[in-house]
Design the sequence.
């Protein structure tokens, strides 16, 4: 097991290194000049030149890459060019915000979707199966921004139950923050439910059809025990992989939701960094999203291997 | 003799020639009351003095006083006022701020020497008075005494001089350099004594007070030892002090109990500024009662607010506009008849009524917006398709031509581009739209590296300014750094220099008329409208003051 984890961690490090190069190269092709982006199109050219010099934007690319990556390795992500602050000070709160929203959405959607998928699979072809499958798929098919606007109009503007933004006032406590995050989290639940539920449903149907399930039933085990001990253990394997890949999306990809709900999350911070040519912010932000993806995938792999020893043994051999 | 007349005579005896000239014009009925106050204030006459003179010369001050009063009921003391605005895109440093979202914050805790009000009348703030020398090349400002920064230190002339020195120093990369280049250089601001500052200008400038005012929003007065860490303290002399600042979330401000003007101390007990990342969220938040005041919204983004009965909207005339440049050195616009035809094909009424819901003034192809007092009477250009076709035929382009129109995806500009495309099609002109993102459009913002400055035809946004000097220079003068039209005209350059140097309004207006007529004939840039500044407050809020630059003063605002 230890060898398996070590191998996965080493692979993740290599992946991150490659990602850092790709991110750095991509950031260089952004249109516009760094100093100009910060000072604005109407700023004096002398000011722009002086700022570019001060920010090191005129240094050769390998020098810029080395400055950045060596800083990241020692915990210094550099200074945000737009905000004139350490990148970690700007990106940190955004990452925490994204994590809060992702966590709430996860806590709601994962058990709900898995339960829905299994519930539907247990009566394949029935009304409840169609309800979960078609309903879930329909909810997923509706774009997140449509859900966002719909929920705001109904629950914020018409009924006045929830706030229309996700950002709680400064100094808000846990429950107030939670209250502000309910609507955007619901949007994500609608978007993700169908996807996760369908995976859980398909895995359950397959497991229900497997020899080991049939044997368990013939042995006379009650249905609940069969489902809990034999079906779920196997049916959730593909679902875990799906859930893990969604984590990266939830942390760094919720640009539209964050925009509509006025939420200062990582997705929005990255878009702004790209618009303002804030390369240190952009590079470090994408790298963080990459780390989240890799950690989530690693966790999924480990869970997978715990549930399915064949994976672990195969990797060790 | 009537004691009032005696006082008038005494005032006139100590007034300068220019001040007496303004008084004579008012007495002779050549200018109205509002203009009298504005012109007098620009050359440094105090508003109370001007109000007295307006009365003494037989004109009621009733209207004047009414203008200065909030239009709504008196607010109650206390409460937390929540103000919604767009999130500043970068660091909040008064030296660097270059955005609408940033400037509204500077004006909360910081103050200017002069406040440019909604009528563009300069009102004394940290400066009590100001006077030019004879040719307008040296301006002397008398500062208010007893003003303290939030840290308790007394503000003096050294602080003021160092504030302007910092902004005029190219090494500090200040946004204010676009206004100060060629006007005020580093070292030009000198502290004469503790409460007097002299500005020695690079060239005479009749509108210099506006460059020290809220119109030039980087000029909030900072301590002489300011070292760029404004976000930690929001230091200034204003009626609000920083309580808490959370990046990307908002700011909480509390009243400055030591504020120098007791009558202007904050009415509310707290002000919470809430940041919104986009206009749609801002409008929704305002409709959902999450904020009580919205600093600014556009017609396209906030149409719902214009008809909302619970919202009091404020519409202020402004000089903000979109320029549509036509490359004068490149086909098909080398011939001015083609440029004139383009301007005649555009239906300005449809733009103002349709695109901007009537919240705009017509543009007349020059930077002289109707809000400027120096704007002269010149016949308004109207759509005239027949004449446009005639001009095209005489220029050998009766079959029309194809031309690309560049711009970026922001505000109402893509819609403007489409409407122009539609209008000029009537004369066989085929416009291919090339709408990109902002960074691509502006590029490096230098000639040869920027669609903004290199395109044959392009749309560029320009914000409000208290005086047209910058827009007369950079986009239109032969050596202008933003001259997308590549317009080179020696007569124009000379006229602008004369206009900028003129201290007297009559003189300014004389040059303005010539500039307006020249630009109307040459059409290097189409100025089709000057849109209004729109802001809103809930009907239970009173006392919000805004100006067209976007400053929102809520120090006297509160709940009714």
Sequence:
């Amino acid at each position: 097991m230890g060898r398996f984890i070590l191998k996965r961690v080493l692979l993740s490090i290599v992946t991150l290194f490659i990602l850092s190069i790709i991110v750095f190269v991509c950031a260089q092709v952004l249109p516009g000049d760094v100093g100009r982006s910060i000072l604005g199109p109407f700023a004096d050219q002398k000011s722009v030149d002086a700022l570019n010099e001060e920010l090191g934007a005129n240094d050769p690319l390998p020098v810029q890459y080395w400055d950045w990556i060596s800083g990241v390795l020692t915990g210094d992500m550099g200074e945000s060019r737009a905000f004139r602050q350490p990148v970690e000070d700007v990106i940190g709160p955004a990452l925490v915000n994204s994590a809060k929203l992702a966590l709430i959405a996860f806590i709601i959607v994962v058990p709900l979707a898995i339960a829905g998928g299994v519930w539907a699979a247990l009566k394949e072809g029935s009304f409840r199966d169609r309800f979960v499958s078609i309903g879930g798929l329909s909810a997923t098919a509706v774009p997140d921004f449509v859900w966002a606007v719909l929920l705001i109009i109904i629950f914020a503007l018409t009924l006045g139950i929830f706030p229309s933004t996700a950002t709680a006032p400064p100094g808000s406590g846990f429950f107030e923050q939670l209250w502000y995050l309910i609507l955007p989290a619901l949007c994500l639940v609608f978007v993700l439910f169908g996807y996760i539920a369908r995976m859980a449903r398909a895995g359950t149907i397959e497991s229900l059809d497997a020899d080991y399930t049939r044997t368990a039933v013939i042995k006379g085990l009650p249905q609940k025990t069969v489902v809990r001990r034999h079906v779920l253990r196997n049916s959730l394997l593909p679902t875990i992989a799906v859930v893990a890949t969604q984590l990266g999306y939830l942390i760094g990809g919720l640009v539209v939701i964050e925009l509509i709900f006025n939420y200062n999350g990582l997705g929005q911070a990255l878009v702004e960094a790209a618009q303002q040519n804030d390369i240190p912010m952009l590079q470090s932000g994408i790298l963080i999203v990459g780390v989240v993806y890799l950690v989530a995938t690693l966790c999924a792999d480990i869970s997978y291997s715990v549930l399915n020893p064949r994976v672990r043994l195969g990797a060790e051999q | 003799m009537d004691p009032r007349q005696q006082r008038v005579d005494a005032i006139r005896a100590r007034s300068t020639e220019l001040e007496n000239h303004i008084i004579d014009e008012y007495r002779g009925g050549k200018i109205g009351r509002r203009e009298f106050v504005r012109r007098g204030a620009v050359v440094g006459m105090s508003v109370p003095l001007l109000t007295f003179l307006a009365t003494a010369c037989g004109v009621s001050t009733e209207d004047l006083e009414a203008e200065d009063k909030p239009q709504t009921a008196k607010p109650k003391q206390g409460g937390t006022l929540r103000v919604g605005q767009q999130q500043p895109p970068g660091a909040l440093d008064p030296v660097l701020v270059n955005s609408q979202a940033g400037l509204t914050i500077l004006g909360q805790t910081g103050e200017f020497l002069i406040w440019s009000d909604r009528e563009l009348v300069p009102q004394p703030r940290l400066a009590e008075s100001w006077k030019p020398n004879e040719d307008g090349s040296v301006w002397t400002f008398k500062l208010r005494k007893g003003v303290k920064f939030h840290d308790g230190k007394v503000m003096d002339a050294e602080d003021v001089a160092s504030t302007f020195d910092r902004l005029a120093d190219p090494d500090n990369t200040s946004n204010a350099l676009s206004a100060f280049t060629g006007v005020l250089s580093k070292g030009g601001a000198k502290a004469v004594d503790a409460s007097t500052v002299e500005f020695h200008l690079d060239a005479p400038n009749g509108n210099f007070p506006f460059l020290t005012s809220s119109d030039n929003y980087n000029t909030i007065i900072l301590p002489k030892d300011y070292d760029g860490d404004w976000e930690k303290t929001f230091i200034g002399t204003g009626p609000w002090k920083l309580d808490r600042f959370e990046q990307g979330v908002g700011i909480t401000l509390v009243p400055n109990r030591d504020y120098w003007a007791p009558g202007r101390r904050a009415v509310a007990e707290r002000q919470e500024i809430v940041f919104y990342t986009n206009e749609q969220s801002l409008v929704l938040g305002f409709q959902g009662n999450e904020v009580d005041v919205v600093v600014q919204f556009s017609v396209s983004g906030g149409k719902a607010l214009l008809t909302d009965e619970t919202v009091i909207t404020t519409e202020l005339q402004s000089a903000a506009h979109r320029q549509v440049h036509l490359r004068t050195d490149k086909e098909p616009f080398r011939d001015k008849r083609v440029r004139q035809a383009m301007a005649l094909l555009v239906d300005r009424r449809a733009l103002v009524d349709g695109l901007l819901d009537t919240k705009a003034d017509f543009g007349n192809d020059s930077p002289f917006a109707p809000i400027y007092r120096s704007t002269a009477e010149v016949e308004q250009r109207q759509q005239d398709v027949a004449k446009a076709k005639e001009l095209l035929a005489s220029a050998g382009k009766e079959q029309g031509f194809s031309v690309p129109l560049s711009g970026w995806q922001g505000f109402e500009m893509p819609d403007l581009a489409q409407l122009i495309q539609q209008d000029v099609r009537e004369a066989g002109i085929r416009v291919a739209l090339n709408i990109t993102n902002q960074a691509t459009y502006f590029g490096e913002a230098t000639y040869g590296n920027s669609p903004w400055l290199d395109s044959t035809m392009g749309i560029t946004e320009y914000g409000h300014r208290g005086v047209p000097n910058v827009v007369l220079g950079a986009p239109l003068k032969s050596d202008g750094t933003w001259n997308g039209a590549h317009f080179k005209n020696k007569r124009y350059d000379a006229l602008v220099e004369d206009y900028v140097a003129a201290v007297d309004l009559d003189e300014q207006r004389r040059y303005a008329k010539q500039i307006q007529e020249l630009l109307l004939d040459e059409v290097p840039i189409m100025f089709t409208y000057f849109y209004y500044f729109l802001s809103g407050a809930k009907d239970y809020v009173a006392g919000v003051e805004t100006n067209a630059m976007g400053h929102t003063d809520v120090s006297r605002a509160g709940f009714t």
